[in-house]
Write a structure and sequence with these properties.
By secondary structure, the chain is mainly α. It folds into 2 domains: 99 residues, no CATH class; 157 residues, no CATH class. Helices cover 58% and strands 8% of the residues. The chain has a 3-stranded antiparallel sheet with strand order 2-1-3. Strands 4-5 form a two-stranded antiparallel ribbon. The protein is elongated. Bound molecules: zinc ion. Zinc ion binds next to loops.
């Protein structure tokens, strides 16, 4: 058969887009009988074939998916599944997923830690302002899933701790991972009911990641009485000075004291970051906002959606309990294509 049905994604998948391990990881089955299938490759052409009958039921018969299931119908089902999944992640999994971000290191309850930050001073105002800016920026640059994945791949390649990243290494399953992150970003930017609140959670998570990074750039520790480190050239000094303003003013932004808050906004709006540190001159507030937006997107690149969905998917679990020997064999790459031809 030329396409199968992934129980993990609730989507139809084309055989020619799959790699051998995808069938086990995505729980790909025959769309007609829901029995597990495996990938065959003959002369460069990929197709799917039933696995189950070859193990314990030689009398098994299935003619595969019904012929009149059109590409349009399959795409409709896939779009509907993606929308449902995005809603489900936002309702049930967003905060637990943020707790699994390997770069955030939440020692205690994620919701409590982020909740405190979210409730502090002007965070709600900042988040709302940021959301409007992001919708504008992302409307121009973040609406292409292919570009989203390219950016994500570059981000993951630069990470220093790849062993802690719980996402698929390659194949269609990796594409599905990025598609989930992309759908989530699009959904958070819609401004629809519930999306704004979820945007706030991702926003404070990103701020939590950015603050230590800014403090690091500001070299507030280790200067040992000197205004700047001895090895810093003119550009480095300018960068350090900007980072110090950002750290100081951003902390004031989060205060309840309205006068300090307004003053911080004024300073961050008036002062500019200039080339070569930025491609174009921009107020520090815009520079900070883009930094936070980048941290938000980077978070979406590395959250372990598929393993979390798999843990909670009862249909997937049923599949595993029904066919444990097949999954075990597929995972261990012990299934030979020759067995099914
Ligand atoms: Zn079948």
């Amino acid at each position: 058969m030329l396409f199968g049905y992934s129980l993990a994604l609730n989507e139809y998948v084309d055989a020619n887009r799959l790699e051998p391990n995808d069938c086990g990881l995505l729980k790909v089955c025959c769309p007609a009988c829901k029995q597990p299938v495996s990938l065959l490759e003959v002369n460069g052409h990929r197709s799917l074939a039933h696995v189950q009958p070859f193990f314990d039921d030689p009398a098994f018969r299935c003619d595969g998916p019904v012929a009149d299931l059109t590409l349009e119908q399959r795409e409709q089902q896939n779009l509907s599944a993606r929308n449902k999944r995005t809603e489900m992640i936002r309702w049930d999994f967003l905060i637990p997923l943020l707790g699994k971000d390997p770069l955030a290191n939440y020692e205690d309850d994620t919701e409590v830690i982020l909740g405190k930050l979210r409730a502090s001073g002007a965070m709600r105002w900042l988040s709302r302002w940021h959301r409007e800016m992001s919708a504008d920026v992302c409307g121009k640059t973040c609406n292409d899933p292919i570009e989203f994945r390219s950016e994500g791949e570059r981000h993951l390649a630069l990470l220093e701790m790849p062993c802690r990243i719980d996402i698929p290494a390659h194949g269609y399953v990796r594409q599905a991972h990025f598609q989930i992150g992309f759908d989530l970003l699009q959904s958070l930017l819609t401004g629809k009911k519930g999306a704004n609140e979820d945007y706030d959670w991702l926003f404070v998570h990103a701020v939590k990641l950015c603050l230590p990074q800014w403090k690091n750039e500001a070299r507030l520790d280790g200067a040992e009485g000197e205004e700047y480190p001895k090895d810093a050239d003119a550009m480095e000094r300018e960068k350090i000075a900007a980072a110090r303003i950002i750290v100081g003013q951003f902390c004031d932004l989060l205060l309840e004291d309205r006068a300090k808050h307004i003053k911080a906004i004024e300073v961050l709006t008036e002062l500019e970051m200039k080339p070569p540190m930025t491609p174009i001159p921009m107020p520090l507030l815009s520079y900070i906002s883009l930094d936070i937006l980048h941290a938000m997107k980077a978070t979406l690149f590395r959250l372990p959606y598929l393993s979390m969905l798999s843990e909670h998917d009862s249909e997937t679990n049923a599949y595993e309990s029904t066919y444990p020997h097949i999954l075990a064999a597929t995972d261990a790459r012990e299934v030979s294509y020759g067995d099914f031809v």
